[in-house]
Amino acid sequence: EYMGGMFSRNQTQEQDTLAQASRCLFGDGKGVDYPRAWKLYHECLEKGSAIAAAIIAAMLVWGVVERRNTTKAQLYASKALEMKLIPLAEATNDPDAQFAVGLLFDLGIGAAHDLSQAIHWYTLAADQSHIPSMNNLASTLYRHDSNNESKPLQLLRIAAEKGHAGAQQNLGIIIRKTNHFEGDQWIKKSALQGHAIGMCNHGTILAANGQNLEAILWFTKAADVGNSHAFNCLSECANLGLGMKRNEMACLTWLETAASLGNEGAIEKLLTEFPNRV
């Protein structure tokens, strides 16, 4: 009886830590904290969490906290599977585990990329009102069929209103096609939470409106958390003298950083315009 009670408390502690890590990684309206999420997921992994191993693998693919490293991501994804992540998701109906399995199929780490399997697992979790799964399911459905926006918009709006920073950013991108003002407001909400892509896109919107100094601020914030596109944008600003004095050295330095982080546009530009630097 005593050992059973202790096991139950340990499970609850792990669930609480995973929930806290998820809020830090994805946002809850109060802001994201990528380094804290990284730390908390590693703490859970040390205690044997297969879910944490899968999320760490995903963070390595996204280039969050550490540079994008698909080789290292595969190792963590394999560890998650060795720790019986899929049987856990099947046996417990735990939405966190279902979400983690969906991630592996979605990103093609530890398992072959399989969109139908990703949708299956995300749906199981989203049906339990798992907010990150709602965002990922919406994004996956939209990538699969961008002409059918109804279901993705419905899911994204629920997640965005709950404070999921990625959903706010994704919702803004879709809405912006028909309503620039509302779309921009959702992207700004994401940026204000510190979401890397949201900050970069908010900066892009500001630059398009001629607010170059503010744009530089947001590009810099996004670059500080390792967003490759933000470095590419800073490079372009330095090249054109937008929001700063024209600076060829800074332009090239930021471009090389973007390329080193895997930004395809930066890599192509280096190959075509600066072949001697590659």
How does this structure look, described?
The chain has 278 residues and is mainly α. Helix content is 75%, strand content 0%. The protein contains 16 helices and no strands. The chain has helices spanning 2-26, 34-46, 50-62, 70-82, 85-92, 95-107, 115-126, 131-144, 150-161, 165-175, 180-192, 196-208, 212-224, 228-240, 248-260, 264-273. Helix 6 runs parallel beside helix 8 and helix 11 (180-192) crosses helix 12 (196-208). The longest helix is centred in the first third of the chain and has 25 residues, at 2-26. The radius of gyration is 20 Å and the shape is globular. Mean pLDDT is 92; it is low at 1-9.
Overview in brief:
The protein is an all-alpha fold and 278 residues long.
- Please tally the β strands and state the result: 0
What portion of the residues fall into strands of 2 or more residues?
under 5%
Query: What do the pLDDT scores average to?
Result: 92
Rg = 20 Å
Question: What is the percent of helical residues?
Answer: over 70%
SSE pattern, N- to C-terminal = HHHHHHHHHHHHHHHH
How far apart lie the N and C ends? 64 Å
Helix/strand structural class: mainly alpha
Low-pLDDT residue intervals, each spanning 5 or more residues = 1-9
Shape: globular
Largest sheet: none
- The number of helical segments is 16
